[in-house]
Design a protein that fits this description.
Blueprint (H helix, E strand, L loop, with lengths): L1 H13 L3 E6 L2 E5 L9 H24 L10 E3 L5 E4 L8 E4 L1 H16 L3 E4 H4 L7 E8 L7 E6 L2 H4 L2 H14 L4 H12 L4 H11 L6 E3 L3
Parallel strand pairs: 3-6, 7-9
Antiparallel strand pairs: 1-2, 4-5, 6-8, 7-8
Length: 218
């Protein structure tokens, strides 16, 4: 666990992030505090992709030793938060509080249901020039009344992949509530059956759901 945390923490530091808390195997980080960072959203998403690359490699290495770990999930959101010492005079506890922080935590958890490993809110994506990502849908997170449009960020290699363009076309049909979305996602799964997000949407369609508005169960 310490080796894993070392890798995640070093990745956060390398992308100008601040480690706020470590809770078990979870790490909370902020970008843009305590020092202002105009590119905080871009740094956060780049960090998320780097953490994913590290974690998947770490998981593969341990698997060769017979140790099986689950996937690392990351939620990224931007917004206003109250940040400072919440530990009183005797204990320094540098913490971030606010709805923006809660949404990031909910997005991390949302990955479990939609099949992604990284979930980025629209508020973060729209702050990044040339953001590359696949739309996940408009998610109504547990405990929230306002839905959040979310994306799965992609590396440059993934963004240029033909399968990404095929997914974008299928999602456009889904968003338009076009019946052809079923065929489009089925064809996508036929080309690549190792795409959990596409499988999730196909499952929704086969279950009678239409559109990209998703009420999460967790």
């Amino acid at each position: 666990l310490n080796d894993y945390l070392d890798g995640v923490i070093e990745t956060i530091f390398a992308h100008s992030g601040t480690v706020m808390k470590i809770i078990g195997d979870a790490v909370q980080a902020t970008f843009g505090a305590p020092l202002d960072d105009p590119d905080h959203a871009a740094h956060a998403v780049a960090c998320a992709l780097a953490i994913d690359q590290f974690a998947e490699g770490f998981r593969a290495d341990l698997l060769t030793q017979g140790i099986e770990l689950g996937s690392t999930r990351v939620g990224v959101n931007t917004g206003q938060a109250i940040i400072g010492n919440f530990g009183g005079k005797r204990f320094f506890d540098y913490t971030a509080y606010g709805d923006a922080v809660n949404i990031a935590a909910r997005l991390e958890d949302a990955n479990k249901e939609v099949g992604t490993r990284i979930c980025v809110s629209e508020s973060a994506a729209e702050k990044i020039a040339g953001f590359q990502g696949r739309p996940i849908g408009t998610l109504l997170l547990k405990g929230k009344t306002q839905a959040v449009r979310c994306f799965e960020p992609l590396s440059m290699t993934q963004a240029d992949d033909r399968a990404t363009a095929t997914y974008q076309n299928a999602f456009a049909l889904l968003e338009a509530k076009d019946p052809k979305a079923k065929q489009a996602f089925a064809a996508l799964m036929g080309q690549n059956d190792d795409d959990p997000l596409a499988a999730y949407h196909l499952g929704r369609i086969l279950g009678g759901e239409i559109g990209c508005e998703i009420t999460l169960s967790r």
